[in-house]
Amino acid sequence: MSSFIETQHFSPSLSVPIAVALLGSGVFVVVRVVTAGMPSYKLLVALLLMAVLVAFAALLVFYPMTTRVDGEMLSVRMPALINRTIDLRNVAEADVEEFSPLGDYGGWGVRFARGGVLYNLRGDRAVTLRLKSGEKVSVGSQAPHELLRAIEAARS
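== PH domain-containing protein ==
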């Protein structure tokens, strides 16, 4: 039985405009290549670029991050990208942190900065764990105090 579970998606107010811009750019490139009468290999490259942009846009809009505290384990999952499990017995300390996603970490997603790693899809709050090994791991959450309580309960 989970003592905490949260599923987040990238902020729709950011992901939809970014996805539309990516798709629009891809369509522009394909149309430009076709109308300019460029060789077929350039059309193939343009279509491959379009496919990559469509896939990235879909990830932005639909891809979830699930955080779970189960027993003595914390897991952070984004299918095919992240599958991180932390044994909470290895946590030296944990606290809620507010931050600027762009200013402090350079954006959202999996970010390596400030002497550690951040897993975050939206918002500006995380639970930061300092592991006994010295590693710093921050997990973004829309309910950081509840996540911290679950971590503290699992550690005791």
